[in-house]
Amino acid sequence: KKRLILVLGDQLSMDLSALKEGDKEHDVVVMAEVGDEAAYVKHHPKKIAFVFAAMRKFAKALEADGWQVAYKRFDEEGSDSICGELMRRAKEFDAHEVIATEPGEFRLISALENCPVSVHMFNDDRFLASHTEFQDWAEGRKSLRMEYFYRDMRRKTGLLMDGDDPVEGKWNFDHDNRKPAPDDVSHDGPLTFEPDEDVQEVLDLVGDSFGSHFGDLDGFFFATTREQALDAMKDFMTNALPKFGDFQDAMLTDQKWLYHSILSPYINAGLLNPLEVCEAAAKEYENGNAPINAVEGFIRQIIGWREYVRGIYFLQGPDYMKSNTLEHGRKLPAFYWGAETKMKCVECAVKVTQEEAYAHHIQRLMITGNFALLAGVDPAEVHEWYLGVYADAYEWVEAPNTIGMSQFADGGLLGSKPYVSSGSYINRMSDHCKSCEYKVSKKTGEGACPFNLLYWHFLDRHRERFEKNPRMGNMYRTWDRMDEEHRETVLSEADSLLRRMDQGGVI
Ligand code: FAD
Ligand code: DLZ
Question: What's the domain range around 343?
Answer without folding.
Answer: 334-502
